From TrEMBL:
Keywords: Membrane, Transferase, Transmembrane, Transmembrane helix. Residues 17-169 form the Glycosyltransferase 2-like domain. GO terms for molecular function: transferase activity. The chain crosses the membrane at residues 239-262, 274-297. It comes from Teichococcus aestuarii. This is Glycosyl transferase. It comes from the Bacteria. InterPro entries: Glyco_trans_2-like, Glycosyltransferase_2, Nucleotide-diphossugar_trans. It holds the Pfam family Glycos_transf_2.
Amino acid sequence: MSRDATLPAAPAPRIAVLVPCHNEAVAIGGVVAGFRRTLPQACVYVYDNNSSDATREVARAAGAQVGSETLQGKGHVVRRMFADIEADIYVLVDGDGTYDPTAAPAMIRLLRERQLDMVTGLRVSHETAAYRPGHQFGNRLLTGLVGLVFGRRVSDMLSGYRVFSRRFVKSFPALATGFETETEFTVHALELRMPVGEMVTAYAARPAGSASKLRTLRDGWRILGTILGLLQRERPLPFFGGLGGLLFLASLGFFLPVFSTYLESGLVPRLPTFLASVAFLLLSFLSLAVGLVLETVTRGRQEAKRIAYLAIPAPPAPESTAPAATSALQ
């Protein structure tokens, strides 16, 4: 018998399916059943977010472990689930029945075989009602903005279908409160230069009788605000340097007419305009100085985040099979 044959088999990875929910009684039973069928070794967790319908009862009847989060918003639910649930691999999916459970095994396999930290379900749909043109355009626009700043490695930033490693979940700060949490996922992975992947998955319309919680304009503005906030926190030198450049241009705009008059007459009759140009010039230098200081602070914070991320074991090797995940649910 070879030496390798005497070694014990590696433990299987614990897989947890996380389903944040708000008033999804119509769809949640099918979602739970679909993931229990395609991932029989996984434990399905449904966290209810102040539903006024029978979401909790339907999810429990379908075989899910049910928890709750009273702070309203998807970001709050995700933060609670990431804190409560212990697993090696996490599948995060919306509870509206629009994502294909049969794609989950392939997404998990991709994560394990390539030792990735995040696999995003790249939504593809031929149903207009499922993925409206306005939502597609907004997604491309916001994804493009993030790609321009943080790197073009994710094609569908707002997808609600993801597979994460444990080290992603346990190092994720989870500061968002609503649908902008998907933006945070993407920036967290790109900022720490995590290995990430994508896989095409079908995206269907909601079942009849259910209603979307996404409000295109309101949530789009919130996501855009989140991107700007992340830019200010994670890229302070370009942010404040760009602001300083705008202030410098404003200073020139005030100064040039005054200077032109001075060359012609030797006088400075527009003293308030001249003072305004000086004020904007000082503000531009101040903005640049703030950017330089915060860039140093941000670099130290990024190093600390990277060390915390590396302190968590890498995803398990692909040879193993998994027991159910454990949770802080009582």
